[in-house]
């Protein structure tokens, strides 16, 4: 026999459940808890950021162009997680990236780029 099953989304190896199960049956928090960043990104692409946000209580704290700073309630243990929602200029896809607690999009962008909090660093440098 010796056959090994490999499951992948867009060429990225993932757990078989993300391929064999319909996204409508997934638990939103399970998607966020995927440790491997590439696997999490592909599963999120299949699940959809919009669908995820429908299931998670959140508040938009600040918006600027293709960026929004969100405060998201992930659970009773994590009632305030902060995420920067952004559009990837190369692919046009939306994604979330966890950031430290902040109040403005610019602060989150600066934190992500390891710039001082009061910097006016521009995100067009990121790829």
Describe this structure in words.
- Helices cover 28% and strands 24% of the residues.
- With 127 residues, it is of the alpha+beta class.
- The strands form two sheets. A four-stranded antiparallel sheet has the order 3-4-5-6, with helices on one face. Strands 1-2 form a two-stranded antiparallel sheet.
- The termini are far apart.
Overview in brief:
By secondary structure, the protein is of the alpha+beta class.
Note the topology.
Elements: E1 8-9, E2 12-13, H1 16-20, H2 28-32, H3 37-47, H4 49-55, E3 58-64, E4 67-72, E5 81-87, E6 94-99, H5 105-112
Antiparallel strand pairs: 1-2, 3-4, 4-5, 5-6
Task: Please give a handful of descriptors for the protein shown.
alpha+beta; four-stranded antiparallel sheet; 127 residues; 28% helix
């Amino acid at each position: 026999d010796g056959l090994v099953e490999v499951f992948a989304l867009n060429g990225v190896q993932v757990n078989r459940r993300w391929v064999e199960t319909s996204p409508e049956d997934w638990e939103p928090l399970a998607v966020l808890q995927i440790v491997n960043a590439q696997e999490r990104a592909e599963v999120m692409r299949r699940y959809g950021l919009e669908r995820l946000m429908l299931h998670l209580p959140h508040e938009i704290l600040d918006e600027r162009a293709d960026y929004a700073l969100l405060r998201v309630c992930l659970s009773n243990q994590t009632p305030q997680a902060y995420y920067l929602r952004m559009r990837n200029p190369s692919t046009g896809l939306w994604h979330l990236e966890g950031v430290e607690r902040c109040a403005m999009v610019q602060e989150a962008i600066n934190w992500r780029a390891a710039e001082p909090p009061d910097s006016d660093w521009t995100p067009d440098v990121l790829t």
